[in-house]
Amino acid sequence: MGRGKECYPNTQHPTSFMNIPFLNFDKRNLEIKAEIMDSFEEFFDSNRYVLGPKLLSFEEEYASFSGTDFCVGVSNGLDALKLSLKVLNIGEGDEVIVPSNTYIATVLAVTAVGAIPIFVEPDVSTFNIDPSKITEAITSKTKCIIPVHLYGQPCKMDEIMDIASENKLFVVEDNAQSQGATYDGKRTGSFGDVNAVSFYPGKNIGALGEAGAITMNNKAHFEKVKVLRNYGSSQKYINTLIGYNNRMDEVQASFVSVMLRYIDSWNDQRNQIAKKYELNLKHIENLILPEIQNNAYSVWHQYVIRTDRRDELQDYLKNNGIGTLIHYPIPPHMQECYKELGYNKGNFPIAEKMANTVLSLPIYPGLSDIEIKYITDSIDRFYK
Ligand SMILES: Cc1ncc(COP(=O)(O)O)c(C=O)c1O
Fold first, then answer.
1. Which of 67, 211, 321, 351 could form an S-S bond across to 199 if both were Cys, CB 3.0 to 4.6 Å?
2. 320 lines ligand 1 (CB under 6 A)
3. Confidence at 96, pLDDT banded by 50, 70, 90
4. Contact 238, 245 (CB under 8 A)
């Protein structure tokens, strides 16, 4: 490794070839297997498979974890976003501000309710929507801002909430990637009017299938979301709203309930891994490491580095047995499905540059010190 730099762990270099997938659940699964099996058995024996006691208790647990009054379990993160917009009556012709570098689901939710996505560029140092650029994107049609806490780092929620209240806009946090993160000591998913979260398997709390949730403090919104996710009905065969079937399965509720007991310790492990990556990689010129704001606790959903030699580095790591991913290779405004929005290459240069330079390294509970060292040694070798 050379150059007399500090590195972690301070042991001998791993010499032999290792296979390190981008994501691996083996160690996490071992940790929770007995509790998951018990909760499955309880679920199985309960005779209650939809809208039962497991979902009710998970909703209470997740609201309390998020620091909100209410939580509604739903089918997945995209549906959580769609229902969040629906409950706020956002629809046809309304404009909704979204970051230009988000995962496509944020934008799909906006167009699914008939609204128009208005893209605002991110701040390069945090990857999150740049609040200083939001005001100029607001028009008389703007109804809502969706800040996305990308890669586990909270957005600048104080500035975003101020802009929203000055302009009488709703805020829907897209908290899909940040369960447990805090900004000024407050959990993400508790700032906005209605907030969406995903429990897709690869998320920090990952169901064993599809699941999502909505968190909020307003009781009227809570009651309405529950009706919307259940065919628009609060009483069997009486339909008061045009609704959907967007319920979280009882079996998934029983699984995410178990995972919720572990999330703070898993997020802490992700923070430890991020520190080790930083220590071992910070000496490499031309490699930009992620930065976390002082008042934020990131839950490191992804560890995203930036380099102009991204594709070469990704190939090199692949040849050394290391899985990496690109989050995300094509920004939403350049996706074919949105060609009718009329954007071209060059319209959102920061998002486009990120799409060409970002690379996500493996980060998950159970990633061992020797694996971290193998990854950082391999990156070091690439640059030599
Ligand atoms: C930022 C963001 N928003 C929304 C979603 C949608 O969540 P889901 O996959 O549960 O529909 C995801 C995850 O896939 C995401 O990363």
1. 211
2. no
3. very high
4. no
Q: Cα(198) to centroid of ligand 1, in Å? A: 6
- Report yes or no on 10 lying in a domain: no
CA 199 to chain centre: 9
* Binding site membership of 175 for ligand 1 (Cβ less than 6 Å): no
In which domain, by residue range, is 140 found? 30-260
Q: Distance between CA 70 and CA 271 in Å, rounded?
A: 28
Over residues 281-309, the pLDDT tens digits come to 999 998 999 999 999 999 999 999 999 99
- Most distant CA pair in the chain, distance: 72
End-of-domain residue from the set 238, 260, 282: 260
CA distance 101 to 154: 15
Cβ neighbours around 265 below 10 Å, total: 10
CA–CA distance from 275 to each of 70, 101, 290, 374, 375 (Å)?
34, 25, 11, 15, 14
One DSSP character per residue, 18-65 reads: --B-S---HHHHHHHHHHHHHHHHHHHHHT--BS-HHHHHHHHHHHHH
Q: Are 251 and 199 in contact (CB under 8 A)?
A: no
CB of 172 closer than 6 A to ligand 1?
no
In the numeric block, which tokens belong to residue 14? 């791993």
Atom of ligand 1 nearest to the CA of 76: 10
Strand partners, 198: 212
Between the CA of residue 34 and those of 55, 251, 257, 269, what are the distances in Å? 20, 15, 14, 21
DSSP secondary structure code for residue 301 in this structure? S
* Over residues 92-96, mean pLDDT: 98
Q: Check whether the bond before 9 is cis (ω within 30° of 0).
A: yes
DSSP state at residue 245? B
Residue 233 pairs in a beta bridge with 239
How many CA within 13 A on the CB side of residue 256? 37
275, 241: one domain:
no
Distance 272 CA to ligand 1 centre (A): 25
Residues 300 and 236 in one domain: no
CATH of the domain at 267: 3.90.1150.10
Alpha-carbon gap, residue 28 to 364, rounded angstroms? 9
